[in-house]
Amino acid sequence: MHMHKYEKWWLLIGGGTLILFLSIIGVSAFAMGHTPPSDHMTINPAKVDETAPFNEPGLKKIGENEYELVMVSQAFSFTPNDIQIPKGATVHFKVTSKDVVHGFAIANTNVNMMITPGHINSITHTFDEAGSYLILCNEYCGAGHQVMSAKIEVS
Ligand code: CUA
Fold it and tell me: Which InterPro entries does this entry report, sorted A to Z (predicted)?
């Protein structure tokens, strides 16, 4: 079917507008999908020191050989950075960042997460083997990235 030149132009503009519209919707949906599911998972990174439980970082016994370990990461350290736990302990880590994105990986375990400012990151691990476990930042976070670490002693 024959079409006048200007009719084709209108079709192109209409199609272009539709694509633009769909991509805006798509981008919004994508952004919404990456919003944390609930408020207790978020934290104001500027107020970490005054927000529970991060106002008192450290190890807390919550059951039979079960602990909650609240840790704060910032360039270029973890607080606390020297932790002692009994062999066989199950540890529920809760970690946030006061500044930039850091990594949180425990050598010789499958613990490996990204610590994003504004978010509370949780992971649980049971330490069945005694030994010294190194917590490493495995996300590049600046000049002191290589020295950013902490230690867990399991005995
Ligand atoms: Cu913190 Cu790399």
Answer: Ba3_CcO_II_C (IPR034214), CcO_II-like_C (IPR002429), Copper_CuA (IPR001505), Cupredoxin (IPR008972), NosZ/Cyto_c_oxidase_sub2 (IPR051403)
